[in-house]
Write a structure and sequence with these properties.
Oligomer: single chain
Protein name: Glutamine amidotransferase type-2 domain-containing protein
Number of strands: 40
CATH superfamily of the largest domain: Aldolase class I
Number of domains: 4
GO molecular function, one term: metal ion binding
Organism: Cuerna arida
Strand order of the largest sheet: 23-22-32-31-29-28-25-24
Pathway: Nitrogen metabolism; Amino-acid biosynthesis; Energy metabolism; nitrogen metabolism
Distance between the termini: 47 Å
Cofactor: FMN; [3Fe-4S] cluster
Number of helices: 38
């Protein structure tokens, strides 16, 4: 693997004037999510690929499963080619294997094979011709899409082409020249030619293909090419073979249930009381058997059925991890959803709805190597939730020769806990036999669960069956449908889909809803049909949101893709049920899972007359229930300590919090190794130095009140730490001309996906500029500020309209890859050369490799947030089920950065429910330099954990914009300062006992940690924390690990802006009124005029200069982020064209771009600027003569 410049020195024949070629495919990339290696260097056998295949694990699993149904007339011994996907390849390598296989073993022509694997978003496109739609529909029956942001280029020697993913998330521009040359690249300006020689400047659109036939010497346009492929076979006729639920219902003898009128006993009730629940539960013990609680019903199910949406929550997840919980969590709770960050973007599932689809073909799949009508003989489900009636239809179905096998996943109570593994083996064997016996559908059912039968968790039964069938090469012969009383939440359904379920009937939800209707909790108007529709619609929204977090658009690609990490499951469970899923700390075995299943059964059916349904308080703390880090005792102690500066109260707080941390977190399973040579505390670094490593979390003015926001800023400025604006901007009156003793300026200014309030003045007046890639409480999701929280003040700060709700999208529209992030880092550095550029990530498996990519992209500071961070508002699925503990993320990040010798270039910050000195010291020993606090300072300012932030009803005036409630705010900067200094003194005490004088000497010293020995939790003893406790310096000895001790080199001295600033200085200084400047520009000159704008903003703020003070005339192809954040008074005219992000964050300047005067093409049909122009622009003007590419002017501001 070479850099572009090294290539010519190694392959000297490339320099020879006699070397001639009719095509060239060149690929240069950042190696972010894999370590660079020779076999991963592109081009591969058939393609070169810039992007990410998010659905990879599912694609590879299904390709393996297809080996049971494939045969080829062109290859005699097909088995000798298996596995089709070679092990341990990158996503590009896997894609290449399958593409080559389809072309060679299936004799597809190359463009058709590519079209089959990377289809357009055909499901919701009303304008697509029928023949093309029918081709894609047929291809969907044959194979699931390989989905993700990707620009694929491919060649077989005759054809050379490119295709863009269905979302169009990667840039692709091309020129056609008059001398019959075509140049395609991810940006313009890579090939020098006279503008008069250009016949066409164009771009590749989402899902479209560009193809050159070198034999016929012509470009084949997307429309002609795909029409030819679509008409090559009778796909429309073949689709008549497809089966629908309507057809099955019509052929079935199952009668629909009559919508009988329901009379409620008395008046309607808002939610269920314990008394009502007792009445229902007294008759149906399965509620407890399947792990329901009153919270489940009131907080999750009722809102879904009533509003067709998931309920919102706030304040983050401070309950124990499932592997530490003593309240028999269901196996789903051990899984955390993975999400896209940096190397690929999440999608906005609502505003980009056109690319989303939950439609799925289920049932037997045919031989993909021989296209025919047989591929369509499958059942097409519009979404995966199946009603009670449809399940009966499917169970009894004999239509068109199909038959269904029902397999019971319960076992007799007498078998004892050993029955669980036996039952799993029985279910696997029965399923494999059913597939061999020609059944088309298998229903796994726990309906027989009851007093004498214990259910195996449906997730374990499904995972084991799915993987067993793949190994036996039988998975493609059957559809797997689940009839389960256990699954009910969005996360449950997503985990089931991720491990191979084709359809799910959560029968107990529907039966429970009927009981609630009879009790008068649900309206009588909600008939069975309406209950099903409302619930399934809420579920569809929830599933779309979870898929979109990972950047996946179609359920067909999400199914079986296993996009989860397990926290606290033993290897034996993973190998049998969830093969290929990362589970880094080991954990509970089948024995423990069986014991917990038995305990649930015992609690439900023991002879004791237990008529009160347990409410363990998984969401809100309850006396005697599940532990929470923020319990009332700790809250009270912390507030007393901070307000009264009481060390006694702080010691009590520290004690009660440590108990909670031991019950809830991974770090609680560790303890310090005391030194044989402790030092006297007087020799330890003073508290006044330690507090400089502290920062408050990113809470926006909007999510919290102005009073709370300013109190944090004043406190942090007094102690020399840093406060964070969050994503809501900051009023100039808070950062200009501040009183040093009452400085309300936030040192860290955040740049999030909504770009609210991000102007050149905001950027210029910061110490840190933080790019928020994800948020701990809801990674992969955007933020939401409801309209009733958007006051005049907030609207002004965010450049929006009062009373109108504000949404920040899940992706940054200018970050769809690591290269894009590197560009934004560079843009921000140019917009404020004195700021430290920070990137906020969330802990998940692989975050270390992402962080090393971010460090290579020149970030100077990286935040790793834990899954348990707080939020003003998010769905409970996001709060509870996405992201991982920071302990795993910090350890992995530190280790990978050291391994790559990048650790000295970046400072690493940990954040997420950090409360005490114990938490801080553990984070430092695992590799963190700095520490973020959000919830703790809020508690100090009066927060009582009501978890009502999203309702604007915060009783203590913190998370509200209500003027009456804001009057109740009693927090003071002094309280926050008292807390931070008591915390620092506690840290000093720990350092003294560890024999450490300087805080820097703590960092990465994992030898000072060991597993907590006095652990009374039997589940905790099964965890293996060896991976976290590896010492990074043992992996690569001698590396400098002092964060930030080596400067990142941005090469700012080479910027064209330096010359610009020199020429414009007299105008900036007010010595002359205006100036005209002429220059040439090329695509190596990025973020043109951003540094000039910085100097203007430092002097004149957002007011800038008078119009046309600085007039710049340019010729050429401008680099990325041309005129980003440009100030008022700067006028730039470019004769030529430009790349992506023109006028990003425009702050009053004026841009004019037109084609070269010597080009004679029609400007209306030619592309002049790239993707994402004017993203986040707040003021100014732009004039472009020509076509702009995707996502033009996504501004999010008024």
């Amino acid at each position: 693997q070479f850099t572009s410049d090294q290539l010519w020195r190694y392959f000297t024949d490339l320099k020879s004037p006699d070397f001639d070629t009719y095509l060239a495919l060149v690929h240069t990339r950042f190696s972010t999510n894999t370590f660079p290696s020779w076999e991963r260097a592109h081009p591969l056998r058939m393609l070169a690929h810039n992007g990410e295949i998010n659905t990879l694990r599912g694609n590879v699993n299904l390709m393996k499963a297809r080996e049971g149904v494939m045969h080829s007339p062109y290859v005699k011994d097909l088995k000798s080619l298996y596995p089709v996907v070679e092990p341990n390849l990158s996503d590009s390598g896997s894609l290449d294997c399958v593409l080559e296989f389809l072309v060679m073993a299936g004799k597809r022509d190359l463009p058709e094979a590519v079209m089959t694997m990377v289809p357009e978003a055909w499901q919701n496109d009303r304008t697509m011709p029928d023949e093309k739609r029918d081709f894609y529909h047929w291809a969907a029956c044959a194979m699931e899409p390989w989905d993700g942001p990707a620009l694929l280029t491919f060649t077989d020697g005759r054809y050379i082409g490119a295709i863009l993913d269905r979302n169009g998330l990667r840039p692709s521009r091309f020129y056609v020249l008059k001398d019959n040359i075509m140049v395609m690249a991810s940006e313009v300006g890579v090939y020098d030619t006279d503008p008069a020689n250009v016949a066409l400047k164009s771009r590749l659109k989402p899902g479209r293909m560009l193809l050159v036939d070198t034999q016929e010497k012509r470009i084949i346009q997307d429309v002609e090419l795909k029409m030819r492929i679509a008409k090559s076979r009778p796909h429309s006729d073949w689709l008549k073979e497809e089966i629908t639920m309507e057809e099955l219902r019509a052929a079935s003898s199952v009668v629909p249930e009559s919508p009988a009128a329901v009379v409620a006993n008395g008046e309607m009730k808002e939610e269920l009381t314990e008394h009502d629940m007792t009445r229902i539960w007294g008759g149906d013990r399965r509620i407890s058997l399947f792990g329901y609680s009153i919270e489940t019903i009131n907080m999750l199910l009722l809102p879904m059925i009533r509003t067709k949406k998931e309920a919102l929550g706030s304040m983050g997840n401070d309950a124990p991890l499932a592997c530490l919980s003593q309240f028999q969590p269901l196996p789903y709770e051990y899984f955390k959803q993975l999400f896209a960050q940096v190397t690929n973007p999440p999608i906005d599932p609502f505003r980009e709805k056109i690319v989303m689809s939950l439609m799925c073909p289920i049932g037997p799949e045919q031989n993909i190597l021989q296209p025919s009508a047989k591929q369509c003989h499958r059942l097409m489900l519009p979404q995966p939730i199946i009603s009670l009636r449809d399940l009966k239809v499917l169970k009894k179905n004999t239509h068109r020769g199909w038959k269904t096998k029902e397999i019971d996943v319960t076992f007799a109570k007498e078998e004892g806990p050993e029955g669980l593994e036996k039952t799993l083996n029985r279910v696997c064997d029965e399923a494999a036999q059913a597939a061999r016996d020609g059944y088309q559908l298998i229903v796994l059912s726990d309906r027989k669960a009851g007093a004498n039968r214990v259910p195996v968790s449906m997730l374990l039964a499904l995972g084991a069956t799915h993987h067993h069938l793949i190994e036996e090469r039988q998975r493609m012969k059957v559809g797997l449908i689940l009839e389960t009383g256990e699954a009910r939440e969005v996360h449950h359904v997503c985990v089931l889909l991720g491990y191979g379920a084709d359809g799910i009937c959560p029968f107990f939800v529907f039966e429970m809803a009927k009981s609630l209707r009879e009790e008068g909790v649900l309206e009588p108007a909600l008939t069975d049909e309406v209950l099903y529709k409302n619930y399934s619609e809420a579920m569809e929204r929830g599933i779309s949101k979870v898929m979109a977090k990972m950047g996946i658009s179609t359920l067909q690609s999400y199914k079986g893709a296993q996009i989860f990490e397990a926290v606290g499951l033993a290897e034996e469970v993973i190998n049998k049920c969830f093969k290929g899923t990362p589970s880094r700390i080991g954990g509970v075995t089948f024995k423990v899972l069986a014991k917990e299943a038995y305990e649930r059964h015992h609690l439900a059916y023991s002879d004791k007359d237990m008529l009160v349904l347990r409410n363990p308080g998984l969401y809100h703390w309850r006396q005697g229930g599940e532990k929470h880090i923020n319990d009332p005792v700790s809250l009270a102690n912390l507030q007393e300590a901070a307000v009264n500066k009481s060390t006694n109260a702080y010691d009590r707080f520290r004690e009660s919090t440590l108990d909670s941390v031991r019950d809830c977190t991974i770090r609680g399973q560790l303890e310090f190794v005391p030194s044989d040579n402790p030092v006297d505390i007087s020799e330890v670094e003073p508290a006044s130095e330690i507090v400089k490593r502290f920062a408050t979390g990113a809470m926006s003015f909007g999510s919290i009140s102005l009073e709370a926001h300013q109190t944090l800023a004043v406190a942090m400025n007094k102690v020399g730490g840093k406060s964070n604006t969050g994503e809501g901007g900051e009023n100039p009156d808070r950062y200009l001309n501040q009183d040093p003793d009452f400085n309300r300026r936030s040192a860290i200014k955040q740049v999030a996906s909504g770009r609210f309030g991000v102007t050149i003045s905001y950027l210029a007046n910061s110490d840190d500029l933080q790019i928020k890639m994800a948020q701990g409480a809801k990674p992969g999701e955007g933020g939401e500020l409801p309209g009733y929280k958007v006051t005049e003040d907030i609207a002004k700060t965010r450049h929006s309209v009062a009373g109108v709700g504000l949404i920040s999208p899940p992706p940054h529209h200018d970050i769809y890859s690591i290269e894009d992030l590197a560009e934004l880092i560079y843009d921000l550095k140019c917009a404020n050369p004195n700021a430290r550029i920070s990137v906020k990530l969330v802990s998940e498996v692989g975050v270390g490799v992402v962080a090393s990519g971010v460090a290579k992209g020149k970030a100077e500071h990286i935040v790793i947030s834990g899954h348990d961070g707080g939020t003003g508002a998010s769905s409970w699925t996001g709060i509870k089920s996405a992201g991982l503990p920071w302990e795993l993320g910090i350890a992995e990040t530190h280790q990978v950065l050291v391994l790559n010798n990048l650790r000295s270039r970046v400072i690493v910050q940990a954040d997420g429910q950090i409360r005490t000195g114990f938490d801080v010291v553990v984070a430092a020993l695992l590799g963190a330099d700095e520490f973020g606090f959000s919830t703790a300072p809020l508690i100090v300012m009066g927060c009582t954990m009501m978890r009502k932030c999203h309702l604007n009803t915060c009783p203590v005036g913190i998370a509200t914009q209500d003027p009456e409630l804001r009057k109740k705010f009693a927090g003071k900067p002094e309280h926050v300062i008292n807390y931070l200094f008591m915390l620092a003194e506690e840290i000093r005490g720990h350092m003294a006992s560890l024999g450490i004088r300087k805080f820097q000497d703590l960092i990465g010293r994992t030898d000072l940690l060991r597993t907590y020995e006095n652990n009374s939790n039997p589940k905790a003893k099964l965890l293996n924390l060896g991976l976290i406790l590896k010492n990074a310096l043992h992996m690569r000895p001698g590396v400098n690990i002092v964060g930030g001790s080596e400067r990142q080199d941005f090469q700012l001295e080479k910027r064209l802006d330096n010359k610009l600033i020199e020429l414009a200085q007299p105008v900036i200084d007010g010595k002359q009124p205006n100036i005209n400047i002429d220059m040439e520009i090329n695509n190596e000159c990025r973020a043109f005029a951003s540094t000039l704008s910085y100097h203007i903003a430092k002097k004149y703020g957002d007011e800038g200069l008078p119009d046309h003070s600085i007039n710049i005339n340019l010729k050429g192809s401008a680099g990325q982020s041309f005129c980003a954040f440009m100030s008022k008074g700067v006028h730039v005219t470019l004769e030529g064209d430009a790349n992506d992000y023109v006028g990003k964050g425009l702050s009053g300047g004026e841009i004019v771009i037109y084609p070269p005067k010597t080009s004679d093409f029609d400007t209306i049909t030619n592309v002049i600027v790239g993707n994402v122009c004017l993203y986040g622009a707040t003021s100014g003007k732009a004039f472009f003569r020509g076509i702009a590419a995707e996502r033009f002017s996504v501004r999010n501001s008024g």
